[in-house]
Structures are given as C-alpha cells and as structure tokens.
Amino acid sequence: MKSFIVSVDGWPEWKEWNKLSERIFVVYRKPKEICMFSPEVSDRSDDGAADLPQSHRLSRHQDLIDQLRECGRLFHARRWSVGTSSNYSAVLASQPAELIVTASGKDKGRLSRTDFVLIGPDGQPTEPDQPKSSAETMLHVVLADHRCWSHPSKPEEIIASGSILHTHSVWGTLLSDHFFDQGGIEFSGYEMLKGLEGITTHQSTHWLPIFENTQDIRALAAEVKTFLQSTPEKMTHGFLIRNHGLYAWGRDVFAARRHIEVYEFLFECTARKIQLGL
Ligand SMILES: [Zn+2]
Questions:
Q1: In a shared domain, residues 187 and 219
Q2: Domain with 72 in it: what CATH number?
Q3: Share of the chain above pLDDT 70, in %
Q4: Rounded to the nearest whole angstrom, what is the distance from the C-alpha of residue 266 to the centroid of ligand 1?
Q5: Does 50 reside within a domain?
Q6: Are 14 and 122 in a shared domain?
Q7: Is 36 within the bounds of a domain?
Q8: Which contacts qualify for 188-193: CB closer than 8 Å, 24 or more apart?
Q9: Could you give the angle at the alpha carbon of 195 between the alpha carbons of 17 and 161, nearest 5°?
Q10: What domain count does the chain have?
Q11: Fewest C-beta in 10 Å: which of 101, 153, 193, 195?
C-alpha cells in the first residue's frame, strides 16, 4: 500500500476528509502534514505485471489485457467487482467471435497478465492448457457476435473489435430487483446520460432492460440474443440481470468502462432518489 503526503495548511480536520471521500484514509498526522493512503494509488497495480513471454498465446494482446486489468483495479476499488465476481472481455473478432475473457474465480483487483483466456465462438478456449474461463463466457460471445457497440446509434459503422464489462455493484443489484416487474429502468433528464455513446443531450430517455437471473447461462445468452435481434433499440449499451449485476459494452475497453461508470452513477442517483422520496 503506497502512501503520500499532503500539506495540512489550509485543509480541514481529518474527520472532514473522511466525509469527502470514503476511499481516502488518514493514517497519521504530523504537525505540518497528513499521511494518507488510497486503494486507487496502491502498489497492487504492480502485481502480475511481468511481460508475457513472446511464445505466450496472449503476448500479442498484452495492451488490451492491461486495459482490462486497469478496469479490474478500478471496479474493485469502487466495490463493483468484489469477491472474485464480474468478468471482462476484449473482442478480437466477430462472426465468428474471438475474445479475450477473464479466467474464472480471479480477484479482479489483482488480475495478472496470465489471468485471461482466448475464447472461440462456442465459448471454449481456442488452445489447450488455458485457465478455465468465466462461467458467463457465452454472454460475451453473443454480445460480440452481435457487435452491439456499433448498433443502433451508428449502424453504418461496422466495428469488429469491442469490449464487454460486467460488474456486481450494490446499487445495480438492488435496482435490478426493484424494477424487475416493469422490465427495465428508464433514465431521463440526467446530464450524465451524455456519457453513453450516441446520446448528445440530457433531454434524452434511455432504457436499460432487466433479465431474470439463472444459472443456465446458455439459456440466458439465447434470451439476450433474441432481444437484440427483435428490439435492439431497447438495449443499446447494456442490460441488468436481476439480483446479479450489470453488463455494458463499448467500441473499445475505454468506452465500455465509461459506460459502466455512467450506469453506476445513474443507479446510485436513482436509488438515492427513491430513498429520499423524490
Ligand atoms: Zn456475474
């Protein structure tokens, strides 16, 4: 865990600091300075960062893997991917799908470069001796094949690559149950909606569908595929699974990560609005 020094001159007392950010903690205080640490600047970022050998099947994709590892550190620190939950992928090709997916059961705050699997269109590893992929791999395959990140906001663009990220946050889990009976959540009037690709004004209405949870991922993947084929305009950037979590995608890892952040912001606003009776 790294620490850093912040001058105390002009700063409020440390109790006020705790109110400003729950992810920054005061360790001790000297007369002229405060020593603090934060999970987001911890030395965990160095874990598993050894270069993959040239002979490794994933060595060509090390940059993409590092982008996904960065998502893991960020989402874990924000408590959206705790307890080894969640899974992330970078799409290399569609129809037939080829993806890099996180291996099953890994701590997302400490992903190493070898914690990823190369997957083919059947959701199986394309080469032997790879770690087991996430149990939800087929959802990634269906989304990759549909190239959902280029549809329908800019259907003229065919973007073969993309990224799909999945989180298990508290707000997303609670709201997925609260709004399940109406089939999804409608967001409107939020400036933050403009963080979703293709949305240019806060005066927009955005629908996020919710699917029932199941351990039969192939059945859920088929349901998602049918939805994408029949009503793509109702599932443009992601979906929720009831009492489970969020899937969101983008044309690359950065866009997918931005969409996760936007949705998590909208979830918290929506939930707190309900709490406040607004
Ligand atoms: Zn999950």
A1: yes
A2: 3.40.225.10
A3: 79
A4: 20
A5: no
A6: no
A7: yes
A8: 190/266, 190/269, 192/262, 192/265, 192/266, 192/269, 193/262, 193/266
A9: 120
A10: 2
A11: 153
Q: Are residues 74 and 26 part of one domain?
A: no
Would you say residue 46 lies in a domain?
no
Render pLDDT for 237-267 as a digit per residue (tens, 0 to 9).
999 999 999 999 999 999 999 999 999 999 9
Nearest to 98 by CA among 137, 51, 154: 137
List pLDDT tens digits, range 37-62: 454 444 444 556 777 877 778 888 99
Q: Kindly give the distance from the C-alpha atom of residue 13 to the centroid of ligand 1, in angstroms, as a whole number.
A: 40
Distance 92 CA to ligand 1 centre (A): 22
**From the CA of 256, how far away is ligand 1's center (Å)?**
16
Q: How far is the CA of 42 from the centre of ligand 1 (A)?
A: 26
- Residue 133 DSSP symbol: B
The residue segments making up the domain with residue 18 are 3-41
Q: In this predicted model, what pLDDT tens digit does every residue of 80-133 receive, in sequence order? A: 999 999 999 999 988 899 999 999 999 999 999 999 999 999 999 998 888 888
Average pLDDT value for the chain: 84
Residues 202 and 262 placed together within one structural domain of the fold: yes
How many Å lie between the centroid of ligand 1 and the Cα of residue 148?
A: 19
Q: Give the residue with greater pLDDT, 160 vs 192.
A: 192
- 120 and 257 assigned to the same domain: yes
Residue-level pLDDT at 60: 87
User: Residue 86 Cα, ligand 1 centroid: separation in angstroms?
Assistant: 5
Average pLDDT estimate for 59-77? 94
Domain membership flag for residue 49: no
